[in-house]
What does this fold into?
Amino acid sequence: MNQSKDRFSDQAREYATFRPRYPQALYDFIFSHVKKFDVAWDAGTGNGQVARDLSKLFSTVYATDISVKQLANAYRADTIMYSLAGEETEFPDGKFNLITVAQAIHWFDMPKFYEVNRVATKEALLAVWGYSLLSITAPIDKRLQLFYTKVVGPYWDAERKLIDEQYKTIPFPFVEIPTPEFNFSVEWTLAEFEGYLSTWSAVQKYIQANHKNPVEDFMKEIHPFWNGERQTVTFPLFLRFGRIE
It folds into this structure.
């Protein structure tokens, strides 16, 4: 992963606090195809939330990221081995039963990353997933779409387009396994929603360019439409899944 594309170190603590966790249904589907639960690798682990869930079943989980700050804020467990690394690693051949990349492969140099063929065991799996723009209620969604495309839209990196396309256009040279549709929901206060938006890489770039946080004005705009203390926030989740041969 190109070090210049590290968009999350500066808000690593906020990322660990406000980024949503993935649904159990996603893991159940992935795990139902896994042959052995010996060793897994979570690439682009960020705050370690996927490594945490993998560690419930795998004997050992290796978790890598290019951000020292992200790793410093990651979930800790004796069975999770964190290390600083990008797409290319020094892992030995034939090591991993499952390799995961959550909300990160769009930042990767994918031809380099697809060394997974080397480090995978026979019948190993690669699961690559992400989530796109959330929805709450129609009045908020309408304003969020404008915020996403117009206010901070010019500050998204080109890689964001792969998220908008739900990874359908990324190269995936593996024996692909059909996947169901997923989504997941969280119950957030307005402050939690604000915290999540502030972790967006485009928001951070906007702040650097304009010395102002655009989320603050957006919160004022949607405040009248926020019903009650908490609102249900729903994320569409998409998965590319395949067997490595």
Summary: The chain has one domain: 3-243. DSSP finds eleven helices and eight strands in the chain.
